Amino acid sequence: MMPSLGRGVMRMRVLVGLAVLAFAAPAAGQGFWEHWGDGRAELNGYRLTQPRYGVIRSGRAVYVYVTEDFSDRARVKAEGEHHGEDAVYPVLKLNAIRDFQTGIYDYNVMTSAFLRVERGWPAVKISFSAQDWCGQVYHQLLPRNGRVEGVFHSYFEGEADGREDLALPAGGVFEDALPIVLRGWMGEYLERGGSRTVPFLPALLHARLRHRPLVWTQARIARARETRKTTVPTGTFEVTVWTVEVEDGRRLVFEVEVASPYRLVRQAGPEGEELALTGSKRLAYWRLNGPGGERHLKELGLSAP
Fold first, then answer.
1. Using CA atoms, how far apart are residues 133 and 155, in angstroms rounded to an integer?
2. Could you tell me if residue 206 is inside a domain?
């Protein structure tokens, strides 16, 4: 279904523009709606290297970025008329999909991060689902009223159905939001050579694969002073390198394109985890669900199933 760019977004454009201009940010913070308000999504394909069960697995990933109007009351995409106390505002949504094989069976996982289009990129919803031949899992987080409300369902005993009530610390960072936050569209998170230690909530995929309760920890986020060249399947890019040192010992690396549109070119984690860009395209992909639409997978560096 086509993402809406309706009245909620239009009402916010002027306010967002003023906020951006008032924020000491580089050119990346300018022209957000000129780029993202065209009614299309950004699709990025990646070659995936995913550790699982002590073995490095090969797979593919797709990151889908798109703007939508969002209902604050229902916490879903706003369509049609919304009245009364329901606030409607624009979000940038990231659907991060990973597919990889583990022996005879495969994993299909997806994380959706909904970040409000304003300075600081407040997360308004993060959801996660995983399917493999053993069963399925769903996990949802709703940050609001100074807390993070969580609900989860799993096929594992001891994890079947539950709720969470987590703090929402000032300056806290959701790992699942980093692929948006570090791109700098609403202003750079850190200046070159800067670093910051923040409360940090690990990715829902990370918690899922390790069967651990979701808890806030600490992480040091740093931006390299100098840019560098990096080569991935789709070519060579000049990138800004971000590193995230998590208190649990994990080290995450995000390599973000220096030039517009500031795409995530490479992402890496521990034990050989890596996503390397294979192709990128802006498309109204929801219109390409008929026979023949799969030909566009080649533009993402991906093969049809």
1. 11
2. yes
Token readout for 151 is 């609900």
Q: Positive or negative, the Cα torsion across 69, 72, 77, 80?
A: negative
Identify residue 250 by its one-letter amino acid code.
R
The token pair at 112 is: 């959706």
Rounded CA gap, 209 and 192, in Å? 33
Name the pTM for this structure. Answer: 0.89
Integer Cα distance of 128 and 204 in angstroms: 6
The answer to whether the CB of 143 falls within 8 A of the CB of 168 is yes
Q: 40-82 pLDDT, tens per residue?
A: 999 999 999 999 999 999 999 999 999 999 988 878 887 766 6
Number of domains present in the structure of the chain: 1
Within a domain: 305: no
The CA-atom distances, in angstroms, between 279 and each of 18, 59, 150, 189, 264 are: 33, 15, 34, 26, 11
- Model confidence over 181-199: pLDDT tens digits? 999 999 999 999 999 999 9
User: Which range of residues forms the domain containing residue 125?
Assistant: 7-300
Taking the CA atoms of 280, 283, 289 and 292 in sequence, report the sign of the dihedral they define. negative
Residue 234 lies in a domain: yes
Q: How far apart are CA 108 and CA 242, in angstroms?
A: 27
Burial label for 66, CB within 10 Å (0-12, 13-18, 19+), is buried
Per-residue H/E/C for 191-225 = CCCCEEEEEEECCHHHHHHHCCCCCCEEEEEEECC
Q: Per the domain annotation, does 1 fall within a domain?
A: no
Question: 261: cis peptide before it, omega within 30°?
Answer: yes
Q: Give the H/E segment covering residue 22.
A: helix 7-22
The distance from CA 98 to its chain's CA centroid, rounded to whole angstroms, is 12
| Neighbour-count burial of 70, counting CB atoms closer than 10 A to its CB (0-12 exposed, 13-18 middle, 19+ buried) | buried
